[in-house]
Write a sequence for this structure.
């Protein structure tokens, strides 16, 4: 008799449930509105384009209203589709968002409007990819939490490109505070460097409401190479728990930015000795960091393995509250670069951490320094900690030296001791395969053909723009003749291409404007474009035709994908009007790398390389890496290189600037002029360069740096040239020469 009870019970619960198949948004909205607890609404397997969907219904804990595709992944939302959930106990599961972007502030929202929030609703087993705003700085999120007790789980999120955290939990009124949301078992697959603030993967709360408790749980997720900015997970509220996640090769960390009473427990941070990989940054009172593993992390300062910040006296909500009463216990730090107490200490952040307990941790390093305390004011209490036997320095108070055993975790041999460090034998380390949408198989792009070479004679120069439209990624255009290539319009590059001179030519092919209309540039890099140039010349004026305002530029149109530009053995000359120059980066565009080698810049009124379009002073900049090597700049009215990153935002790594073995002759001699201007470059090296009769009215080199920036000028010669100027006067190496010509 008892064996019959369970089937009968299940039958009684589902006897009155209904299911329906819908094939358009209006039918779906209507079906959910009249659905009863336990009902299932199936969306017809197809591509739903520009579907704005509002789902409001009321299920129960045992009988939610389920919204499903006919088969998992069978429904693709594209175009400008979005979904808003309102009501109680709705399950939205198994959908695919791709090839589009939302017209709203979010793709999936746990509210329909300010009056209709969601509670106890679940979004599960979905995939969002290729769904970024086309404009880089247009802000949105992919999922935004409102209400209470909502969940996102077992979903896959791939490489968000535009501004805004991927997932946000809002606490903007009491109905969304103390919310107990859950973000669990998800796979966050990459996020490229954004080059500005706003590249977080998850943000819980915001400074304005940071004194409120959120009580959100972030558990069992896998973060792979989430490199958007310094904060991979940004906690800006109180009483949250971030536990048992894996952070794999992420250039940033888990940051307790605002709020108090948060717990970071049982996470695995894997750096694999990759530069800039970070761990946990602690700010504000009563935070706990316990039982985590930090493995081969190489970040420093704000990306340190453990960064315990200095605070600001009488801090505003959006700055830095003092760290007080923190517990850092039973963590394992294995072959990591930096543990830093007093991170960010400067003229503003003067309050050192207070009453921080650093207890029963294990540090395994072959270095001679276990940690750095920038304050040394007694605010950190060390007790019962251990150092591995390979430690080469003086053993600090509160530490002893031990020889731990080892245990294998996901193929990694980790030092282990039952008394010190993380409890490795009891931790549920999360693998990538345990997370994300089970049905999802990434598409493999198959090109229509193999990349080809296209030969272009000077007589066919005008056909190059049309030929570019017929190319595929990886194709090469070879200019076969030296001499003049008469261009009638700008070349627009929106895919990875190579444009080069044929080998063994005695002179370069020279691009000139042969129309009576000015060209913005000879080449414009558009969204999706990468470009390699070799052996070409770009001449700004030609006979009595209109000018070309530049050699190369990045687009003024919306761009969200970083591009790469490589210029080798090229010549830029005769840009003689206004600000015309060789290369100009447009506002809201971002280069992963600009590499210029073995090239000549001369006779121009504008800058040689101008990456100064981001003047909003919000920490934005135009290129992550700028490398200029073995190049010559001469007879230039404006500066040779101008790179700008204004503001004091700490979220980003770059710009990185390398200028090596270059010559500057008669460049920028106007009053207060600057030959090389680097504003806000966080890492810059100018070496083995020669300045002759350049910057005479001002500066050869100007830095505007912050105290933690790493800048260097060394092995450079300055003949009848301007000074080198930096804010902290720490740029100059010991091998520079300043001389006046006889």
């Amino acid at each position: 008799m008892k064996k019959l009870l369970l089937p009968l019970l299940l039958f009684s619960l589902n006897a009155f449930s209904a299911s329906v198949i819908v094939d358009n948004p209006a039918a779906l909205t209507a079906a959910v509105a009249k659905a009863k607890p336990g009902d299932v609404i199936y969306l017809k397997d197809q591509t739903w384009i520009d579907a704005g969907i509002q789902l409001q219904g009321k299920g129960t804990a045992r009988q939610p209203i389920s919204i499903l595709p006919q088969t998992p992944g069978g429904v693709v939302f594209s175009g400008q589709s979005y979904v808003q959930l309102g009501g109680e106990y709705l399950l939205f599961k198994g959908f695919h968002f791709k090839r589009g972007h939302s017209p709203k502030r979010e793709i999936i929202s746990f509210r329909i409007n300010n009056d209709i929030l969601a509670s106890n609703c679940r979004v599960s087993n979905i995939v969002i990819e290729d769904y970024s705003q086309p404009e880089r700085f247009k802000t949105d999120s992919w999922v935004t939490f409102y209400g209470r007790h909502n969940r996102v789980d077992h979903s896959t999120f791939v490489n968000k490109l535009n501004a805004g955290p991927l997932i946000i939990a809002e606490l903007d009124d009491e109905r969304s505070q103390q919310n107990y949301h859950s973000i669990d078992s998800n796979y966050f697959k990459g996020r490229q460097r954004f080059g500005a603030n706003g590249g977080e993967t998850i943000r819980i709360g915001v400074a304005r409401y940071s004194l409120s408790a959120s009580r959100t749980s972030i558990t069992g997720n896998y973060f792979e190479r989430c490199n958007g900015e310094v904060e991979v997970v940004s906690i800006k509220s109180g009483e949250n728990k971030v536990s048992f996640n894996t952070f794999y090769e992420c250039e940033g960390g888990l940051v307790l930015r605002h709020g108090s009473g948060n717990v970071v427990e049982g996470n695995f941070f894997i750096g694999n000795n990759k530069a800039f990989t970070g761990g946990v940054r602690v700010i504000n009172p009563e935070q706990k960091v316990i039982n985590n593993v930090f493995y081969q992390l190489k970040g420093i300062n704000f990306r340190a393995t453990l960064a315990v910040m200095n605070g600001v006296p009488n801090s505003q909500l959006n700055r830095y509250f003092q760290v007080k009463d923190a517990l850092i216990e039973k963590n394992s730090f294995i072959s990591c670069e930096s543990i830093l107490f007093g991170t960010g200490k400067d003229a503003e952040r003067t309050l050192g951490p207070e009453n921080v307990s650093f207890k029963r941790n294990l540090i395994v390093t072959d270095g001679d320094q276990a940690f750095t305390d920038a304050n040394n004011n007694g605010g950190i209490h060390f007790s019962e900690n251990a150092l591995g036997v390979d430690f080469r320095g003086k053993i600090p108070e509160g530490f002893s030296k031990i020889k731990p055993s080892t245990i294998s975790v996901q193929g990694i041999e980790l030092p282990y001791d039952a008394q010190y460090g993380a409890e490795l034998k009891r931790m549920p380390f999360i693998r990538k395969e345990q997370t994300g949408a089970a049905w999802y198989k990434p598409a493999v792009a198959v090109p229509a053909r193999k990349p080809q070479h296209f030969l272009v004679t000077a007589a066919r120069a005008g056909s190059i723009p049309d030929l570019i439209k017929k190319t595929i990624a990886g194709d090469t255009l070879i200019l076969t003749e030296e001499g003049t290539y008469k261009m009638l319009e700008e070349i627009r590059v929106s895919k990875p291409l190579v444009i080069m001179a044929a080998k063994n030519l005695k002179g370069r092919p020279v691009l000139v404007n042969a129309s009576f209309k000015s060209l913005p540039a000879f080449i414009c890099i558009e969204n999706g474009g990468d470009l390699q140039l070799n052996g070409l010349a770009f001449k700004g004026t030609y006979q009595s035709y209109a000018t070309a305002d530049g050699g190369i530029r990045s687009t003024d149109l919306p761009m969200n994908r970083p591009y790469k530009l490589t210029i080798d053995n090229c010549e830029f000359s005769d840009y003689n009007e206004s600000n015309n120059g060789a290369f100009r980066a447009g506002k809201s565009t971002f280069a992963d790398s600009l590499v210029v080698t073995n090239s000549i810049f001369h006779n121009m009124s504008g800058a040689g390389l101008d990456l100064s379009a981001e003047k909003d002073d919000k920490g934005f900049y135009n290129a992550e890496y700028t490398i200029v090597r073995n190049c010559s700049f001469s007879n230039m009215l404006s500066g040779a290189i101008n790179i700008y990153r204004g503001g004091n935002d700490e979220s980003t790594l770059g710009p990185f600037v390398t200028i090596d073995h270059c010559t500057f002759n008669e460049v920028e001699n106007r009053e207060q002029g600057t030959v090389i201007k680097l504003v806000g470059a966080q890492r810059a090296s100018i070496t083995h360069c020669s300045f002759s009769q350049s910057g005479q009215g001002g500066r050869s080199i100007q830095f505007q740096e912050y105290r933690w920036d790493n800048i260097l000028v060394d092995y450079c010669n300055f003949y009848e040239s301007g000074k080198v100027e930096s804010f902290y006067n720490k740029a100059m190496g010991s091998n520079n020469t300043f001389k006046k010509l006889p």
